[in-house]
Amino acid sequence: MPVIIPEVKMYFNPNLESHFMFVPGVITLILILISALMTSVTIVREKEFGSMEVLLVSPLKPWQIIIGKVAPYFFLSLVNVIVILLMAWFVFGLPVKGSIALLIAECMLYILLGLSIGIFISASVQKMENAMFISFLGLMLPSLLLSGFIFPIENMPKGYDYFSMILPPRWFVEIIRSIMIKGAGFSLYLEGDADTGCDDALLYVSQRQEIQGKT
Amino acid sequence: MRKLMFLLRKEFRQIRRNTFLARAIIAVPLLQMLLLVPAVTFEMKNIDLAVTDNDHSPASRELISRLSGSSFFRICATPQNYTQADALLLAGDADMVLIIPDDFSEGMAGANTPRLQVLADAVNATTAQLGWSYLVSVVRDYNRDVIINRGAAPSAIPGISVSPRFWYNPSLNYKYYMLPGILVILITAIGLMMCGLNLVREKKWEQVEQMNVTPVKKWELIASKVIPFFIIGLFDLALGLTVGWIVFDIPFEGSLLLFFACAAIFPRCRAGTGSLLLNHGIHTAAVSFCRILLCDDLRPDERNIHPHREHAAVGAAVQPREPGGLPDANKQDGDA
């Protein structure tokens, strides 16, 4: 009587440790929440305190204003990224099997995206508390649950895999898992393009909103 | 008590006047519940399985057709060798790879033990183990059918037969499990954010000093800040349950009264009166966020960061301008 014996080899994570799954996802979540929260109040604050009109009548172009607002927070978030990666490495024992340069580059792209989301929210709402409300609540649960971090996207009903394509955390979770745990290098540079596309779109749209005086 | 009533009326008017927030209180839980609850499930579907068939025999083909016929797996690729399978796993194009050795059909005929090799992408350990156990059960069913077809009596096949009964959720519907969880997270987050932002707005527009000189007592002031969001939290809870009942057919077997009584007592439902100055205190935002994730007891943040200091250092505890008065009341309310 033949008895089939299947044998399994668990790739990338032989000990089946759960923190290989959780830590990259938590990194994703924290980075986008903090970036979006930081910038979501910058433009709204100007609107509330009345200095937005001063900025608009100055010879500054809208894109200059926006870049000027994003840049300081970008450098601040870089410090954040480095601290988080160091913690993941030393405290949680997460390896970085792929190239570190690619990892840092992808993180920079991602925080730029988070900051752009914040600026977009900021340019669209009129009150600071509304901005904080949207940026926190509107981003937290979708990033946590729809990005493939805990629940795989294949399990979700039909339209969700298309919907999750517009969510930056979905791409970044895959990227960071590939680089840190699977050891992907520059040759597998795939999902970064989707990130860049979202980013450009968001920066452009927030600039348009400002120009049209919806500020 | 009359003063408290007036203060409550003022608070509700202020909330209503902020049209965005008034709509967001209803729209945010509603939209997120409708969007998120169908998505969160561990029911494995469409696991990308790549098969390397080195045997090309009827036995192996039947095994592959059983795997592709099950609802769990989707045969996504047929790599020719181990190197290609490795590349598929690295690129994330396949979640599992099944390698059928070339002596599989001889093993099935009885010459030796038939073996199968499975490579699983175990970055997500839970789904890897689930996928593996599904594959094992499909293989075991195939094995059992082969033995029965050979003419062996079913009782000759060793094994324990288990017949499970799933209580409370016989159809193993994940929504029954996840909907209350998502609802609680949403309400905690909304209550926390709104109460914190409300208090900060008062401090920003310097109305706290005006409040301090009125005959309103400290406890009345604090109560007037907490009670509206407590009521809104309960309202959102009821809204979420209604959505669950109407849209997702979530049953409610217990007593509604007990449910809302527990929600009322439970600290999470009551908005913490923290001075979360979220536009400056990034660390407090992260801390409060961590609290939500770890479902900790909501204690108000002891640090009162002054709203007009634009460059408050992270972690600096800056004393507000008014001596005594509200900040002490905040600290006393630590266990509210």
Could you give a short account of the major beta sheet of chain A? none
Low-confidence stretches of chain A: none
Shape descriptor of chain A reads elongated
Order of strands, main sheet of chain B, comes to 2-1-3-4
Mean pLDDT score of chain A, rounded? 83
Mean pLDDT of chain B, to the nearest integer, reads 75
Q: What is the strand tally of chain B?
A: 4
H/E element sequence of chain B: HHEHEHEHEHHHHHHH
Order of helices and strands of chain A: EHHHHHHHHH
- Mind telling me the C-alpha Rg of chain A? 20 Å
- The fraction of residues in strands of chain A falls at under 5%
**What characterizes the major β-sheet of chain B?**
4 strands, mixed
Fraction in helix of chain A? 55-70%
What is the helix content of chain B?
Answer: 55-70%
CA-based gyration radius of chain B: 30 Å
Largest interface, per-chain counts?
A-B, 60 and 76 residues
Structural class of chain B: alpha/beta
Spans of chain B with pLDDT under 50 lasting ≥5 residues? Answer: 268-336
Tally of extended strands of chain A?
Answer: 1
**How far is it from the N-terminal to the C-terminal residue of chain A, by CA?**
77 Å
Topology at a glance:
The complex is a heterodimer of chains A (215) and B (336).
Chain A: E1 5-11, H1 19-40, H2 42-49, H3 51-57, H4 62-90, H5 100-124, H6 128-145, H7 160-163, H8 168-182, H9 192-211
Helix pairs in contact in A: 1-4, 1-5, 1-6, 1-8, 4-5, 5-6, 5-8, 5-9, 8-9
Chain B: H1 2-17, H2 19-36, E1 47-53, H3 58-69, E2 73-77, H4 82-91, E3 96-100, H5 104-109, E4 115-121, H6 125-149, H7 174-204, H8 207-213, H9 218-248, H10 256-265, H11 282-294, H12 326-332
Parallel strand pairs in B: 1-2, 1-3
Antiparallel strand pairs in B: 3-4
Helix pairs in contact in B: 1-9, 2-7, 2-9, 7-9, 7-11
